[in-house]
Q: What sequence folds into this?
DNA sequence: CCGCATCCCATGTGATACTG
DNA sequence: CAGTATCACATGGGATGCGG
């Protein structure tokens, strides 16, 4: 049960003993969005074997990172306060990895939670603070998210609602956020398709969410 | 050679594919201190098997995180610019794990590089900025480091030199940095032993390096 | 059906030995 | 010193089972 250790006494080593096992940090990532049921976690981690998911959940509990909580008759997993302190780590990790994302391979999918965390990682609060509040409807690879930016605050939720701009994109949206593709050319090339609302707001979106390689 | 993937297209997933394998982030941690030779890496990662070290070095090169560089007849490994961008990740990871460090187990050792990174993670630049420049000689678990604080700048090197305060400590130093033990009580309890210089500077050290649980 | 537990096999890991 | 080779073993992956 005790995670394999590294024989070293140090901060990074300790962190890796707690959340360094395969899949562990992805479970944490999804729980940073909100509490999740076992099945929801399994769905968000497309290819995790069920025995591994069960094992990780136990280990993360033993490590004090997550806990089981009964929510109105069903059991959900949620982060402990200490687990929530992993948010800067996951965001930094996500921002770093984002820059190395090329084109997706065929079997690679996008999940609502992974996309939410990518948007959080790319969010530039200081830029958004000086822009008008805006709601975007973003549809990427079968995932539809409602993205509300209000000053320096960002809220990403599933489902939809009233938006100022709705657009649909392939994974090429990654190149819009990286600055590799300008908003105009993203539309012209078909990488982003405008669905509803004011199309010029795509520029504002690209300013708000940006992670240069 | 290609790291096992997670079947998902996202920033965190991509990052884990690149540096998520066992030992990989520890290699990066040591290389963040400076270029290292193969043998130095092996010495800093006490129990890594040589075949694993060799495999990780190849994978990290293929991932564009590190590179081999010829330095005056010997080969050293160093981070690429992209690899160096992992510094915030490693620091955040180290700060998080530091808070979960209990007492060391018997077989756990402290290496110069791990201790250097822990000090960097615990360094509070904003606090140090308003304190006089100070040089500490810190000896912990057989590792001796020269710690120079100059305004908001921190420099940690091996070996020794002129210092304002030299002290020796067991791993209990961790409790000084966490605030669990006051400087006075650290000395009184023997957790920290003053060697040279002005003992009252230990309080300044504890203010400069702090990571509360 | 959800939340796991079991089984089996492929692969990665770890200790040791070995080579240029 | 800087790796490579080998082999036993632990872990991960995928399918399946099963109780509440």
A:
């Amino acid at each position: 049960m005790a995670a394999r250790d590294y024989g070293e006494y140090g901060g990074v080593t300790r962190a890796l003993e707690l959340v360094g096992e395969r899949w562990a940090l992805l479970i944490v990532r999804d729980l940073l969005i909100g509490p999740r049921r076992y099945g929801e976690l399994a769905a968000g981690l497309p290819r995790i074997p069920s025995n591994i998911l069960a094992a990780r959940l136990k280990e993360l509990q033993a490590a004090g990172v997550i806990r089981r909580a009964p929510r109105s008759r069903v059991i959900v997993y949620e982060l402990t306060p200490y687990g929530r302190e992993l948010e800067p780590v996951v965001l930094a990790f996500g921002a770093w990895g984002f820059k190395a994302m090329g084109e997706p391979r065929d079997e690679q999918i996008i999940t609502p939670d992974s996309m939410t965390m990518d948007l959080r990682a790319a969010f530039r609060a200081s830029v958004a603070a000086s822009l008008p509040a805006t709601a975007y409807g973003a549809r990427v690879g079968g995932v539809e998210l409602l993205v509300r930016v209000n000053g320096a605050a960002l809220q990403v939720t599933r489902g939809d609602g009233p938006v100022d701009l709705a657009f649909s994109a392939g994974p090429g949206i990654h190149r819009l956020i990286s600055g590799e593709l300008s908003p105009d050319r993203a539309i012209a090339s078909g990488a982003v398709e405008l669905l509803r609302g004011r199309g010029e707001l795509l520029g504002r979106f690209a300013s708000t969410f940006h992670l240069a390689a």
